[in-house]
Amino acid sequence: MDRERVRGVGAILNRTWAPVILRALDNGPLTFTELIEALHDRAEPHISERMCSKTLRALHQEALIERRPGPAARGHQYALTPLGTEFIEEVGGFVDDWLARHPMFPPSA
Predict the structure, then answer these.
(1) Which DSSP string do the residues of the chain spell out, in sequence order?
(2) Are 25 and 79 in contact (CB under 8 A)?
(3) Is pLDDT of 109 > 80?
(4) 71 to each of 4, 32, 53, 107, how far by Cα in Å?
(5) Which residues contact 32 (CB under 8 A, 6 or more apart)?
(6) pTM of structure
(7) Residue 109 within any structural domain of the chain
(8) Count of domains forming the chain
(9) CATH code at position 65
């Protein structure tokens, strides 16, 4: 196994917001505003616009998402690339399966 590639996957998963953003985009393309709203509905604490922008740039550089023109006068849309779709299906499926088998995770303090 190529260590550098494994570290790259680990880096994506280690970014607090990357998996959450990828999951939100799994439902289809979103504008920046729609994405922020979707993330606020899903997670506490809420992501800042600055952190969302930074994470989107990183995911774009890793070819997991694409930025494309959105509907008229609504800015850009962000969408999963085929690589991003495959990533979230594989990794998200693994996480979902693991969590289903361990309903008490994380343990309460």
Answers:
(1) --HHHHHHHHHHHHSSSHHHHHHHHTTS-EEHHHHHHHHHHH-SSPPPHHHHHHHHHHHHHTTSEEEEE-STTS-EEEEE-HHHHHHHHHHHHHHHHHHHH-TTPSPP-
(2) yes
(3) no
(4) 38, 12, 20, 44
(5) 49, 52, 53, 56, 75, 76, 78
(6) 0.82
(7) no
(8) 1
(9) 1.10.10.10
